[in-house]
Amino acid sequence: MTNDEQLRRQAYEEMKKHKGMVEQDPYRLHYHMMPPVGLLNDPNGFIQFQGVYHLYYQWMPFKTGHGAKFWGHYSSRDLVNWTHEEIALTPSEWFEKNGCYSGSAIEHDGKIYAYYTGNVKDAEGNRETYQCLALSEDSIHFDKKGPVVHLPEGFTAHFRDPKVWEQDGAFHMVVGAQTKEVKGAVALLSSEDLMAWEYRGVLAGGGEGRLADFGYMFECPDLFKLGDQDILVFSPQGIEPAGMKYQNVYQAGYVAGRFDSAAGTFEHGDFEELDRGFDFYAPQTTVDGQGRRILFAWMSVPDQNEQDHPTIAHKWLHTMTIPRELKLVEGKVRQVPLKEMQDLRVGTVIEHKVELYQETRELIGVKGKALELEMTDLSITEGWFDITIGGGIRLVFSAGERIVTLERKSYVNGVVEKRQCSVKNLHSLRVFVDTSSIEVFVNEGEETFTARFYPSPNNDTVRFEASHKAVFTIRKWNLKHVN
């Protein structure tokens, strides 16, 4: 039996062993992608191939901690109903023995070219990294070609997460990196054949420009065109909190500008966070056959109380976000739920036209553990308005300060914690709740909040409260169980 076969068998045995315990967890989600057992993190290799969407992901099947990661694999024809496929990659070769780390995929000549970081550590913990290639003709079985990019000069071994795309007659790769001066950076490489890669320099960060002192490591870069701008998404580490910004231990966001593929340069503006909530990291995008730029992100953040989640008792940890379409509006990236999310709706819509006057109210039929709320024509001119879901998470708008706040009871110690952002006005909300997750889209995606929370399993209430007057129309749908 090869090392690859042995690792696969061990992973499948782990799935079988803990299947019952995992499925009994009341915090298991209904319509999000989760690991069958163990830990899930970064989305990888997101691609539409031969009419099917594929989302590979970082997976540790043997525990709810990090380690030598596999590539798990989900597939879907409609972005709503997902099938868990065979393991795509196992850390079975010398160049990846401590993990098949994050990467991306591109279609060429009828094949998937999957690029990923091979992680190698010695007995003393010294790290080596290789950017590796694996090919597939069917999206399921991969033929590993080994390292195609070795560490360029000027970087530490924290050099990972290759994202590859085609533009202007060539192939390009961005890699998350740390310079030897311990500065976060995005490296750029180019190729004519997807096999031989030329290092072209630091594209962003690295101690220069607007991102000169912007943390000690950039992870999971992704460069693409959106509207009339080029967008570089990445996840910086080592950013200090600044007012309402950068409140998580690590961040995820983007800079917008102009990428010159011939010169290998990128002129860009300031960094913007993609999400204002507690749990959003390592986003990855693809463009589909309809020309949509679609994003998935990991609904967590590394090193942020990961081992305190109550799902660990049931042998699993973490989930993906719902898929979101990106749009560029007035120079800013907006995220909106894909239109396919409407296919999750079941039963009859519940609709109310509501006026609250210094009161707390529950609305008939507006409750549940897996639901979508759509609120339009919001009018809150003074005081505050809030929504409390499951008794465990609260969304507040302060009209005077024009601040949106998401509060939750910490699953670590029960203390209320918050994340915030400013808006000019609040006119609409769209909220997706799934047992232990919430995704909030403010003003058609002008801002988003993503978070895990753990209410009492018996609490499915939704309460509305206004300190003065709040007027709105609300529609509520139950969402079906597809997992």
Quote the distance from N terminus to C terminus.
32 Å
The CATH architecture category of the largest domain equals 5 Propeller
CATH topology of the largest domain: Tachylectin-2, Chain A
- Oligomeric category: single chain
Radius of gyration, CA atoms, in whole angstroms: 22 Å
Q: Could you name the CATH class of the largest domain?
A: Mainly Beta
What percentage of amino acids are in beta strands? over 45%
How large is the count of helical segments? 1
What's the CATH H-level homologous superfamily of the largest domain? Glycosyl hydrolase domain, family 43
- Given as residue ranges, the uncertain stretches (5+ residues, pLDDT < 50) are none
Number of domains: 2
- What is the residue-averaged pLDDT? 97
Helix vs. strand class: mainly beta
Number of strands: 32
Q: Considering DSSP H and I runs of 4 or more, what fraction of the residues is helical?
A: under 10%
Q: Please outline the major beta sheet.
A: 10 strands, antiparallel
Q: Give the overall shape.
A: globular
Question: In summary, what is this structure?
Answer:
This protein is mostly beta strands. Helix content is 4%, strand content 53%. The strands form six sheets. Strands 23, 24, 25, 26, 27, 28, 29, 30, 31 and 32 form a ten-stranded antiparallel beta sheet that branches.
